[in-house]
Amino acid sequence: MSLLTRDNPGETHLMMGNEAIVRGALEAGISVAAGYPGTPSSEIIETLAKISTDIYTEWSVNEKVALEVAAAASFAGLRSLAVMKQPGVNVAADFLMHLALSGVRGGMVLLVADDPGALSSINEGESRLYAKLMEIPMLEPGNFQEAKDMTRWAFELSESLNMLVMVRTVTRLSHASGNVTLGDLPNPKREAFFRFDGDMLDPMEGPIMTPPVAFKHRAQQRKLELAAEHFETSPYNTYVGPESPELLIITTSICDLYSREVVNLLDIGTRVGIFKIGTTWPLPEKCVTERLAKTKQILFVEEVQPFIEEAVKVLAAGSDLDLSAITFYGKYSRHIPLTGEMNPEFVTQALCTILDLPLPASHDKNSRLAMPEISIPPREISFCPGCPHRASFFSINTVLSLDSRQGFTCGDIGCYSMGMLPGGFFTLKTLHSMGSGSGLASGFGKLRQFGMKQPVVAVCGDSTFFHSAMPPLVNAIHNSACFTLIILDNSGTAMTGFQPHPGLPVDTCGKPAPPMDIEGICRAMGATTRVCDPFDLKATQQQLLEFIKDDTGVNVLILRQACALSPQKRHTRAFEVTVDPALCIGERCGCNRICTRVFSCPGLIWDAENNRAAINSVLCAGCGVCAAICPQNAIQKKEIQ
C-alpha cells in the first residue's frame, strides 16, 4: 500500500511536494482528477492514477479540456481537481473565465505549477495574475505540510463559496521533499447527479451558465469578499519576529523558507520580521495593514512578477498609513531580481544592502574559489543516444539544404525543441507554444501571393498533435495554405515521462483504450499523408523532398519511431554497431568528421589517439542510423537476433 493512502492520522512521512498535494486531495475526498502533462506538475495525475482505483483520473488532450472534465464532476456534486503547469492556464483561460463566473457545486480546485527560472520550460509565465484577472481565490503553500493541508482546505473553501479555488505551487516545492503529518481520509464517497431543473438563478438546483452576466458577476465579487473574510483569520498567513521590526519581509510560497534561512544565518531575528502570506488573493487587507503599521521598512521577497508587492502597495495607498514614513524594497527598487528563481543568496544580498551588514563568507567569491574543484566533463545539450528526433532533424536539414530555396522549419515545445540547438542542426527557426509551429506555418503558407517562395515546414509531437496542432492544421487546409507538417511520433508524451495520449491503445491508468489514428485523422481532413521511419534516412528524405516541392496545399509526413527511453525500447538494441578501423581513415577522409562533429550522437566518440571514430558501447542505443551517414561505410551495423 502506498503511504499516500494510509488511513493513520497523525503519522508523519517524508513526501515530495507533489505527493503532499495528492494526499491533500485524497483527504478532501476527490472523485475526479484531470490534467495535461507538464513539469513540474506531472507527478500529481500520475500518482493519483497509480494509487487510487476509486478516483477517475485522466490525461486530457489539453488543459482546457482537463478543466472542463473536472468542472463536469463538480457540477454533478463531486469534488474534482484540474492540474496543469503555468502555460496550460493560457490554454484553459477561455473556459476558466466562464467557469469563474458560473461557479461550481462540488469543491473544485485548479492546481497550477509554475516554473520560475524556466528549469523545464521555454517561458517564465506567472499564473498568479490569472487569479486576479479571473476573480477567484488563490492559495500558495510555503512548505510541504501546507501543500497537503492547503490543498485539502481549498476544496472545503471552494464548496463553501461555490467557487473555483486556485492553488499555486512552484518547481522547488513540487519536486523537493519534507515531512508531512497525515490527516484522516473521508468515507463514504459521494454519488454524482447533475441538477438542472431549478430556477436559473439557483446556483445549486438550476442550470449552470454565465447569464445573466451582471447578476452573476456581482455574485462572484460577493463570493470573493467572503473569501477575503475567511483569509483574515487563516492560519496560513504567519508572522515570526519582533512585534515592531526594523524591517518587515513580506513573502509567499517557497520564498518563506529562503527568508527564514537567511534571517537565521545573519542572526537578525530580533531586527527583522517575516510575514508569509499563504492566502495570496484576495489579500487579507486588515491583516496586512496591521503589519504595515508596525514597521518603517518593507522588503518583498517573491518570484517572477511583483504580484504581492503591487497588491500591498495599492492597499497601502488606499489606507490611513503615512506612506512617506515607509520605505519599500523589492523588485521595483531592484533589491530583488526581476526574473528567474529566488534563492537564499538573493535574499542575503538584499538584506545586507538594506541593513548595511557585511556579506557572510559564503558570498565571498574568493572563498568560493578556494573550494576544491570538482571535475565535471563538459556535456552539450543534445538528444539522447538513439533518439529518433536526431535522425528526423538530420533529414529535414539535409532536404532543405538540398532544395536550396532557403526553406525553414517552425517548431514548438517538446523534446524536439532541441532542434534549435547544434544537436538538432539548428533546424528550428521559430519556437513558441504547443501547436504554434503549425499555426505559424499556416500563416507563412499563405504568403505566396506576396512573393514568398521558401518551402515551409512545421514539426510537432504526437501528443502535441492532439493537444493543439489539429486546429491550425484544419485552418491551413481550409484556407489552402501550403506547407508540410511533420509529426514526430515517438509513441508517447516523452518529455514529461511517457504519459499516454489519444493515439495510444491505453488510458491514464494503463487500461485498454481505443487509439485515434493520426494518419487517418489527417487524411480525413484532406491532407496528403505519408508515414516513414526516421531511421530510414533515404526513404524519409525522398518523401520529404517530394512534399516540399509540392506547392498545392498541406502535406503531412508522420515520422514514427518509438523514443529510445520508452518502456518498450529501453535496454533493447536493434543493431550491434561497430567502426571498421580499416575503412575509417579519420581526418584524411574528407568527410570532416560528419559522424562525431555534425551528427554528434553521444554513442559516437572521436578516438583522437587512433585518429578515427569509435562507438561508446555503454551509451550506444543500437539504432544504426550513424551507419547511413558515413560516406566510407566505415560504421557498420549488424542486426541483433
TrEMBL record:
Sorted UniProt keywords: 4Fe-4S, Electron transport, Iron, Iron-sulfur, Metal-binding, Oxidoreductase, Transport
Listed CDD domains: TPP_IOR_alpha (cd02008), TPP_PYR_PFOR_IOR-alpha_like (cd07034)
Q: Which Pfam families match?
A: Fer4 (PF00037), POR_N (PF01855), TPP_enzyme_C (PF02775)
- Is the Coiled coil keyword given for this protein? no
What are the required cofactors? Answer: [4Fe-4S] cluster
Tell me how the cofactor is bound.
Binds 2 [4Fe-4S] clusters. In this family the first cluster has a non-standard and varying [4Fe-4S] binding motif CX(2)CX(2)CX(4-5)CP.
Q: Which GO terms describe its biological process?
A: small molecule metabolic process
- The residues covered by the 4Fe-4S ferredoxin-type domain are 611-640
What Enzyme Commission number(s) apply to this enzyme? 1.2.7.8
Q: Which GO terms describe its molecular function?
A: 4 iron, 4 sulfur cluster binding; indolepyruvate ferredoxin oxidoreductase activity; metal ion binding; thiamine pyrophosphate binding
Which reactions does this protein catalyse? indole-3-pyruvate + 2 oxidized [2Fe-2S]-[ferredoxin] + CoA = (indol-3-yl)acetyl-CoA + 2 reduced [2Fe-2S]-[ferredoxin] + CO2 + H(+)
Say what the protein does: Catalyzes the ferredoxin-dependent oxidative decarboxylation of arylpyruvates.
**Subunit arrangement?**
Heterodimer of the IorA and IorB subunits.
Put simply, this protein is called Indolepyruvate oxidoreductase subunit IorA
> Which organism does this sequence originate in?
Desulforapulum autotrophicum (strain ATCC 43914 / DSM 3382 / VKM B-1955 / HRM2)
* Organism taxonomic ancestry: Bacteria, Pseudomonadati, Thermodesulfobacteriota, Desulfobacteria, Desulfobacterales
Q: Which gene encodes it?
A: iorA3
